[in-house]
Every structure is written in C-alpha cells, then in structure tokens.
Design goal:
Elements (H helix, E strand, L loop, with lengths): L2 E4 L5 H9 L3 E3 L5 H8 L4 E4 L7 H10 L4 E4 L9 H6 L3 E4 L5 H16 L2 H9 L17 E5 L3 H12 L3 E5 L11 E3 L2 H7 L2 E4 L13 H5 L5 E5 L8 H10 L2 E6 L10 H4 L4 E3 L8 H19 L2
Parallel strand pairs: 1-2, 1-3, 3-4, 4-5, 6-7, 6-9, 7-8, 9-10, 10-11, 11-12
Helix pairs in contact: 1-12, 2-3, 5-7
C-alpha cells in the first residue's frame, strides 16, 4: 500500500480508515529541511493551512521520485505551487465541498458580531463596564449583502442571508452565474457602492495583489461592514485600518490575515473588528467531511 504524510493532521476517523486500508500513515508535522527530506519518501501528502508547499519543497519531492499526489484538506490551493507540481506530474487535489457550510456560518457570525458590538461588549463587560447606551447596533434584515465570489461558500452564505430578509448581490468572474431567486449579479463597482455588508469568498492571486485597497474602500458606502473569511491577502490591511479609523468602514470581521499567525496587533485589537484565527473550517462536521473526502481521493488515486 501507499506511504501517506498527513503533515497538518486529519480527523481521527479518517486516519484510522487509511490505516485500516493498509496504508503507512505519518501524522507528524514537519517543517523546513526536514519536510523536504520527508517529501522524498511518501506517495502522497495531505496539508491544511499550516503547511505551504512551494517550488523548493515540490522539487525536493521530485528528487525523491515517489510523490504522486498532494491534497489540500480545504477549499483553496494557494498555499501550493500547484502549476509547478502539475507540470511535473504531481496531481493536486482539494476538498471543495466539505467546509462550505462551516465557513459560511462563520462569515454570518462575524456579520452579527460587528452589527451588535458583540466582540467589543464581551471584552468591556469582563472589565466591569456596563456600556449599554454605547452599543446601538443595526439589523441585518433589510440590509444589502454583497458577496464577492459566488462559489459553494458564497452560495451557502447567500441562502442564509436571504432567510434573514437581506437583499443579496453578488459578483464573480465572467460567466459565473448563480441561478437563485432573490439575488442579483452585478459588477464589482456596483456591488461596492450598493452594499451595506460585503463578504469575500475568493482566492488570493499574488500576481494581482489585494482585491480591496484604498480605491475600493473609497467607492464603498459610508458605514459599510466588511467580512473576510477567504484569504488574508485579498484585503490590504493598512487600507482597511485607515477605512476603520475614518469611519468609512463601521466594522470588520476578519478570519484570515496576510501573514499567519498575524503580527498585526493594531488590526486585531481594533474596537470595531471581530477577529478569529483562521477557523472557517474548524467545526466537527467540517473536519469529518474533509477527512472523508481525503480518504475517498486517496483511495481513488492510490487504491485500498
């Protein structure tokens, strides 16, 4: 059977399923030179967000001549130099459906948090303060949500927003259409100008840089609320801080950062920011589904 490296771990039931199929499974987390050395000795490697597989890592695997498959347990594959891997005969897969509901629910949770001062009030109450009159929030019902990226996660968020009575706009690449009653496809400029809430669900393209910078924030409504549960680089963090300070952005929910773990303590500590440490897929249900998808891909590709 195959030798499989689960460098960022996997659901316990999935690990046992792989071992029951006779595979040699290593769940140790390796980094740097040790990771490069280990990649030479495995048929497949499964990673999550903690591991980045760049050209030097993949080249080390190629030097070993064993690695056939890289799986990202999650949606995005931007932490893998996938074009280089595929060009050299290594298959790259992900688990695109497993965490959609979990990420959408976290985005919605951030929307509630920045609408009702939940994050800030939680801190001040623990400090003995009772600031009831300072926390006059807004309702989601009747507001307009703009979803940037209408893939599986964006659609799951849109369904929940419609159930709350929100008006839903979305934008995506040309030709990407979501056929759903009560939603409307618009271009990005119109979405920025019309939305009370904006939620991002797109990959980060390092060749293009941040999707939202100073110019895009200037085009938004005054008092807009922004949620990013996609990738940190999609938003220029300095521009976001400036928009928060000016009042252009009334609140931001941030699960992902340009660098992780983040050292941007100013953004993390801002009183109108709700923050989480990249936990979009960190639910029991999502982890079980991710594990099951990984096992299915490995079985399809490597047998067992």
């Amino acid at each position: 059977m195959a030798r499989i490296l689960l460098n960022d771990g996997l659901d316990a039931a999935a690990v046992q399923a792989l071992r029951d199929k006779g595979h040699d499974v290593d769940t140790t987390h390796y980094e740097g030179d040790e990771l490069n050395a280990r990649l030479k000795t495995f048929d497949a490697v499964v990673i999550r967000s903690a591991t980045k597989l760049r050209e030097p890592n993949i080249q080390a695997a190629l030097d070993g001549g064993m690695l056939k498959l890289i799986i990202r347990g999650g949606v995005g594959i931007d932490n893998i130099d996938h074009a280089f891997a595929r060009a050299n005969g290594i298959e790259v897969r992900n688990t695109p459906t497993a965490s959609s509901a979990s990420v959408a629910e976290l985005a919605l949770a951030h929307m509630f948090a920045i609408s009702r001062f939940i994050a800030h009030a939680n801190v001040t109450m623990r400090q003995g303060e009772w600031n009831k009159k300072q926390y006059k929030g807004v309702e989601l019902g009747g507001a307009t949500l703009g979803i940037v990226g209408i893939g599986r996660i964006g659609q799951e968020l849109g369904k929940r927003a419609l159930a709350l009575g929100m008006d839903v706009l979305y934008t995506d690449l040309p030709g990407v259409v979501w056929e759903q009653d009560g939603v409307r496809r618009v271009e990005l400029d119109e979405l920025l100008a019309a939305s009370d809430y904006i939620s991002l669900h797109v990959p980060f393209d390092k060749s293009k840089g941040a999707l939202l910078g100073a110019g895009q924030f200037a085009a938004m409504k005054d008092g807009v609320r922004l949620v990013n549960c996609s990738r940190g680089g999609v938003v220029d963090e300095a521009a976001l801080l400036a928009a928060l300070e000016s009042g252009k952005v009334a609140g931001a929910g941030v699960d992902v950062f340009a660098e992780e773990p983040t050292a941007n303590t100013v953004l993390v500590g801002h009183p109108r920011v709700s923050v989480t440490p990249h936990i979009g897929a960190e639910t029991r249900q999502a982890q079980t589904r991710i594990g099951a998808e990984v096992v299915a891909i490995l079985s399809e590709r490597l047998g067992g």
